[in-house]
Specification:
The chain is of the alpha/beta class. The protein has 22 helices and 24 strands.
C-alpha cells in the first residue's frame, strides 16, 4: 500500500498527525519553502514537489494562464452588464493571475505525483483537496483530508500601509474595506485644510484626467501641467493622491484637483446601489450554479479546476460587487459630465483603470504611459502580456525608440499611436547625479527583487538558491575591509519581501533595510548597487535608475543563460549568474576603479540609446497633453 502526504502550507503540519508524518509507510511531498524547511528541521524525510516541474513546464502553464485572464469573455455578458460594462470583467487582471497561477501549477504537480507514485491513499488538508479530487475522479484512490480553516485571500484583500512618523517607519495591515474607509476619512480631514477637491460645477474647461498616479513619483510632470488652461484631475481610488507631505506639496504647487469617487454620486444615485447589488447578485449566483459552463472554461490538461476556485470567486464578487457597481456608476457620471481632453493611465488592468476605460467607450482619447524598465528578447516575449502595451488600443507613451521599434516589429502597432517622450518619473534622477564619493568606506546597496507568483516561476529551489546567494553575499562583504551593506526592498506588496527581510535580519540585525524611503536618495547614498533578479524575464527598474544616477550596477541572474538584452550586450551592467564565482566578481565590482569607470561609460551610452529627453521628459509629455 502506497500512501502519500501532500503538504501545501506550514499550517498543515499542525493538523496532520505526527504518526503519519513520521511513518515509514508514507511518502511526503512539500509544496513550498516554509514546509520544506520545517520538515527538514524536524528531520522528516520528504520530497520537494516543485522538483517535478521544469521551468519549461512552468512557462507552458504561464502561457495557458493567458486564456483565463479573459475568462469572462466566454460567457454571455448581457445579464452582467451595467452601463455597458461587464461586471465580471472589473476584477484586477494581475490580482486574479497572482491567485490562479499557483493553483494551476499545483494541479499539474499533483497530477505528476499521482502518475509517478500511483498511490493507494492520499493524505492532505482541504487546502488542496479539490485539486486532488478533480484529478482522481475516476480512480479508486482512498483519501483522507484534514480541515485547515485558514482562508486564502487575493493579493488586495489586505492592504499593507507604510508611513514614517517622526522618522520612525511604521507598517500595518488592514482589510481592503477598512483601508478604504480610513482612506476616505483621511482625505475628508485633509479637505478641511486644502482646497484640493474637484467639483463638477467648478469649471467647464477641458480636463486632463490622470488615473491612480503617485504625485511624488511624477512631481515634475504635474509641475509642468501647472500652467495648463484647464483642469488637471487626479482620480485615485486605490491609494490616496495626498498620502504624505511630499505628495501634498506637489498637488499644491501644481494646482491639480483631486476627484473623490465617494463624492461623485448624489444621495438618490447612491440609494440605487443596494437595489442593483441585489439584482446582479442573483444573476451572478445563478452563474456560479452553472457548473457545466464554468467547468468547460476552467480546464488545463483535460482536468477542470472550477471546484478548486469556486468558493474564492464567489467570495470576491460577493464582497466587491457593491464597490464595482459604485465604481461603474461614478465613472459613467464622470464621462457624461466632464469635458475631457484625454485620460492618462499607467495600466489597463487595475479596477479603476479598467472601469473608466470600459465606460469611456472611446468617447475621449486615452493614453497609456510606460512606467517600468522593460527590455525584451524573443525568449522573454511571452511576458509582454503583463505590460499591456500589446493590447492597448489608443495612444502609447514610451521611454525611447527601442520600445517603439519592438511594438511595431513584434506586434504590428501603428507607429502613429506611439509617442516617444522619455521617462517623466526619472527627470529628477538626471539632475540628481552626484559625484562619486572618495570616502574610506564603501557602501553597497543590495536590492533583492522578490519572486512574484504572477510569473509562474516561484519554487522552493529557486527561493533556496536566492536565499543562499543573499547569505553568500553578506558573508563575503563581511570579510571585505571597509564595505558597508544597506538593503532596499521592492515596494511591491508580496510575502517574499517579508521573507527576504527576515532572512537578512536573522543574518545581521544591524544591516539597514529600507522599505519605502525614496529610491533616488537610497541609490545616491551608495557607491555601488547590486541587484538580484531571480525571474528569467526580469529587468528591474533599479538597474536603470542606478545607471541614470551614475552608480555602477551589478545584476545576479538565476539561470544558466543570460538573455541578450541590450544593457547586457553593451556591458552597461555587470551581469553574472548565481553560479559564477561570487567573491571574485564582487571584488572586481567594488574595488576595480577602471572597471567601474568602464561600466559607467557603457551605462551612459546605453541610456543615450534607450531613453530620450533626459531630464526633460515631463516637459515633452506635458506639451503633448496640453496640445492634444
Amino acid at each position: 500500500m502506497t500512501k502519500i502526504i501532500l503538504i501545501t502550507s506550514i499550517s498543515d503540519l499542525n493538523l496532520i498527525p505526527n504518526d503519519l508524518l513520521k511513518s515509514n509507510d508514507t511518502k511526503i511531498f512539500s509544496f513550498n519553502l516554509d514546509v520544506h524547511l520545517e520538515l527538514k528541521n524536524q528531520k522528516i524525510n520528504h520530497t520537494i514537489a516543485d522538483d517535478l516541474l521544469s521551468l519549461d513546464e512552468r512557462l507552458r502553464i504561464f502561457d495557458k494562464m493567458a486564456e483565463f485572464r479573459s475568462w469572462h469573455s466566454k460567457i454571455s455578458s448581457s445579464d452582467f452588464e451595467l452601463k455597458g460594462v461587464n461586471l465580471l470583467k472589473i476584477l484586477d487582471r494581475n490580482e486574479f493571475q497572482t491567485y490562479l497561477l499557483p493553483i494551476l501549477i499545483n494541479l499539474v504537480i499533483v497530477k505528476e505525483i499521482i502518475k509517478k507514485e500511483k498511490p493507494t491513499k492520499i493524505i492532505a488538508t482541504n487546502q488542496i483537496s479539490k485539486i486532488i479530487q478533480s484529478i482522481i475522479k475516476n480512480n479508486h484512490i482512498e483519501t483522507e483530508f484534514f480541515k485547515n480553516e485558514i482562508e486564502k485571500n487575493l493579493l488586495w484583500d489586505n492592504i499593507t500601509v507604510k508611513y514614517n512618523i517622526g522618522g520612525i517607519p511604521l507598517t500595518f495591515t488592514l482589510s481592503r474595506q477598512k483601508y478604504l474607509k480610513i482612506k476616505n476619512i483621511f482625505e475628508n480631514l485633509s479637505g478641511l485644510f486644502y482646497n484640493f477637491w474637484f467639483k463638477f460645477d467648478q469649471s467647464k474647461k477641458k480636463s486632463i484626467v490622470f488615473l491612480e498616479f503617485n504625485p511624488q513619483l511624477f512631481s515634475r510632470l504635474f509641475e509642468e501641467m501647472a500652467n495648463y488652461d484647464g483642469d488637471v484631475i487626479l482620480i485615485n481610488h486605490r491609494r490616496s493622491a495626498i498620502w504624505n507631505k511630499k505628495s501634498i506639496e506637489v498637488i499644491k504647487k501644481s494646482k491639480c484637483k483631486i476627484l473623490k469617487l465617494d463624492d461623485v454620486l448624489n444621495k438618490h444615485e447612491q440609494a440605487q446601489i443596494p437595489l442593483l447589488v441585489d439584482n446582479y447578485s442573483r444573476k451572478i449566483d445563478n452563474l456560479w450554479k452553472n457548473s457545466e459552463i464554468l467547468s468547460n472554461i476552467f480546464q488545463i490538461d483535460g482536468y477542470n479546476f472550477w471546484d478548486s476556485i469556486k468558493d474564492v470567486m464567489m467570495k470576491i464578487y460577493s464582497e466587491r460587487l457593491f464597490s464595482y457597481i459604485s465604481l461603474i456608476l461614478s465613472m459613467n457620471k464622470i464621462i457624461d459630465n466632464i469635458d475631457i481632453k484625454c485620460i492618462v493611465s499607467l495600466n489597463e488592468s487595475g479596477e479603476t483603470e479598467k472601469t473608466i476605460l470600459e465606460v469611456n467607450k472611446k468617447k475621449f482619447p486615452t493614453i497609456l504611459l510606460e512606467h517600468g524598465f522593460i527590455e525584451r528578447v524573443s525568449e522573454t516575449k511571452r511576458f509582454d502580456i503583463l505590460s499591456e502595451h500589446t493590447s492597448f488600443n489608443d495612444k502609447i507613451v514610451v521611454w525611447g525608440e527601442p520600445k517603439k521599434i519592438w511594438l511595431i516589429n513584434e506586434y504590428d502597432v501603428d507607429p502613429s499611436r506611439i509617442l516617444v517622450t522619455g521617462s517623466p518619473r526619472h527627470d529628477d534622477y538626471f539632475s540628481s547625479r552626484l559625484k562619486n564619493k572618495n570616502s574610506h568606506e564603501k557602501t553597497l546597496l543590495l536590492a533583492p527583487n522578490p519572486i512574484n507568483e504572477i510569473n509562474g516561476q516561484s519554487s522552493t529551489n529557486l527561493k533556496l538558491q536566492f536565499n543562499q546567494t543573499i547569505v553568500n553575499i553578506l558573508e563575503i562583504i563581511k570579510n571585505f575591509d571597509n564595505v558597508k551593506v544597506i538593503v532596499k526592498l521592492h515596494p511591491i506588496q508580496l510575502k517574499h519581501n517579508e521573507e527576504i527581510k527576515s532572512l537578512i535580519k536573522f543574518f545581521d540585525t544591524s544591516i539597514p533595510i529600507y522599505l519605502w524611503t525614496p529610491i533616488i536618495d537610497t541609490i545616491n547614498n551608495a557607491d555601488a548597487v547590486l541587484v538580484l533578479s531571480p525571474e528569467i524575464h526580469a529587468t528591474p527598474t533599479m538597474l536603470l535608475e542606478s545607471m541614470i544616477l551614475g552608480k555602477p550596477a551589478m545584476n545576479i541572474y538565476f539561470d544558466k543563460t543570460i538573455p541578450e538584452y541590450t544593457h547586457v550586450k553593451n556591458n552597461a551592467v555587470f551581469t553574472v549568474t548565481n553560479n559564477d564565482n561570487l567573491e571574485n566578481n564582487l571584488r572586481k565590482f567594488l574595488f576595480d576603479e577602471n572597471f567601474q569607470k568602464t561600466l559607467q561609460k557603457n551605462a551612459d551610452n546605453f541610456l543615450n540609446q534607450f531613453l530620450t529627453h533626459h531630464g526633460t521628459a515631463s516637459e515633452k509629455l506635458a506639451s503633448i497633453l496640453k496640445s492634444y
